[in-house]
Amino acid sequence: MSDNEDKPQRERKPLGLKRSVDAGEVKQTFSHGRTNKVVVEVKRRRVLGKPGAPEAAAPPPPPPPPAAVAPPPPPPPAAPRKSVPAGETPQERVARLQREAEEDRLRMAEENRRREEEEKLRALEEEKRRAEENRAQEKRAEEEAAAPPAPEAAPAAPEAPVAEPAAGPEGDATAAPSPPAPRRFTPVERPEAKRADTPKETKKVPDRSDRKAGAGKISERENRRGKLTVNRALNEDEGARARSLAALKRAREKERRAHYSGQSQSREKQVRDVVVPEAITVQELANRMAEKGADLVKSLFNMGMMVTVNQTIDQDTAELLVEEFGHNITRVSESDVDIDTSEDQDPEETLKPRPPVVTIMGHVDHGKTSLLDALRGANVVKGEAGGITQHIGAYQITTKNKDKITFLDTPGHAAFTQMRQRGANVTDIVILVVAADDGIMPQTIEAINHTKAAGVPMIVAINKCDKPEANPQKIRERLLEHEVVVEAMSGDVQDVEVSAKTGAGLDELIEKILLQAELMELKANPDRLADATVIEAKLDKGRGPVATVLVNRGTLKVGDVFVAGTQSGRVRALIDDRGQQIKQAGPATPVEVLGLGGVPQAGDSLTVVENEQRAREVASFRQQRETEKRTTLAPTNFDTMFSSLKSSVIEYPVVVKADVQGSVEAIVTALHNLSNDEIKVRVLNAGVGAITESDVTLAAASKAPIIGFNVRPNANARQQIERHKTRMMYYDVIYHLTADVAKEMAGIWGPERIEHVVGRAEVKQVFPAGKRDKAAGLLVLEGIIQKGFHARLTRDDVIVSATTVASLRRFKDDVDEVRAGLECGVVLADTNDIKPGDMLEVFTVEERERTL
Questions:
Q1: What burial letters (b/e) apply to 349-367, b meaning 16+ CB within 10 Å?
Q2: Considering the domain boundaries, does residue 545 fall inside one?
Q3: Is 295 annotated as a binding residue?
């Protein structure tokens, strides 16, 4: 027999209309005075029983436990009004009222917070009570379902609590019924689900109706939790007005802020070790202390120092700030950050012989570069404009005996003083070139002074001995005037007669150089990080910043990280004096270095460091120090600034761009030497490389010419030049540049005015002349008084007016001049301020062309 046949047929009931839903209307209240009416439907409870059994009445709702929820506490009594003190002033009354208002505000805030906490506690207790009731009902339902039914009660419906009508206020049964209890599904076990022959109770597998009943129970719980019911809407314990979503958000934000503020107050301040150099800005110190810059400025203000966050303070002031904020200070000096290789001495056993470094110095056109050309077998003179050297050239030659000598060729023009001084400082031996037909000249004397200041030995090369008018002996005698005693004159300075044109005496010169180097025992350590000196630097269009350096010690290799002055970089390539790329350069080797971050200054030290971080740190420190030096030279107060604006000195602004750093130095120095007390050169910008758009913009804004020395503008700069009509001045010889600038400065300055006094007279009487003018009766004391001459009227040796003689009369006749000892009458132009006793001085003005 199938399962369907085993199941009893359910009794079919006739169809009919029956009210299964109770409807009601609830008014909802929201924030900001908004309301809404909602229709609430409550379905009747459905009781599942045995087939054919009549429906049971709904069970009555469980009675609420007494005193489950405490009634809301009564509002706290209002604070008593304080008595107004007698004789209270208006200010005291305002302060008292403000204080009372603040106390009332704090009291109300405390009451609101306590009320919110009590509401939360009541809501939690209510939820807990409801959960316990639900669990108790479910347990009772499970126990009733598990209990076996009585035999006599089989045909009857299962026991179910009958809902008794609640008594009204008068106790009658016709009063309004209470809201129905939540629906509960009680699983009913069918008797046919058990077998008679089952010896013991087995685990019952729920059928489809049981699963439906379980699913209905779960969905009913979800619906009861999320749907607004009449019971929930009319429940007075939850309050007549629900809190809005915005109020809940505000409460949560308040709790979060209180939580974090409590944490921040309890957090301990972290003590830091602050590294403070000899000079540091306020903002940098604040960053290292992890404090606010405004707090440091406030502390300095309390100390009596009016500073901003960008100003620099010394180490002692920084220490006071660090200690005031509770941190630990660690003092460092410049030696801890910067690199100083002067005290780094190599051990004696690591030193090896190195080639000598020889610098050729002397007056312009005495044959220095020609002598070097003859030594190295090249022709450098053709590459220099005007046949004079304007750059420091570094070359290395190899002698017949395979010995190497490094030569530095310095310019001899007066403008290149710094180049010659730099060459004397990095050299081992100086060759002083003197022309036998010219003698001792100003730059020759300057080279001697540089050599003595550097403390290096000197070899005198008397050049141009092939000329008929050459007189080497006269040169030796003239050198005695400058305390240079050659060996031929019983001294210790070697001298040799050479001719760069014929090559005579060159071998003897090389022998003397090697002999001097052997006596000096020149050595260096090649097995260490390189240390070099920047001889020259420039900005190449295709290769970028390029520096010509002379390695002092160590070995400079491709890939080394280095610091050169305020610039850092990595060696990308090394190029020798013949244009060949090499992998490394040993001591006393001149090379061109590619890979710099910018153009360094000529004379800077190049030092190889261990990593890029160290290189950037040192370069940044040096840049900061250079910035501080520039800012200290700037005007620091308004009086200095306005006094400079009121200055009567005429300025000649220029923008200078050159091919190498040494030329920039020489040009700027030469231009400053042209300045005097009445007119001066103002260099707006001086740099290395091609003329760019920024240079043209600066020159156009200042109405200044651009001086280009061996450089030209790029394409964009040319367009700017045409647009702004900027004046360009191109040169390749420095003394042409200085001569033209001197002429222009003289033109701007104007011709020189020279006064010649021709006569003096005394005012004896003043009388009217015409309607507005006054005439002065004069007695000529010196010289002559002539019509049309410049005149200066003085009273008690104080100039009253500067004018001209408009009219001159002798008695009633107009005359051109009146000589000393005679009387006359004059009318002065543009002045009537004449009194008896004044002195009249007549003079002429001569204009002459100025020269710088």
A1: eebeebbbbbbbbbbbbbb
A2: yes
A3: no
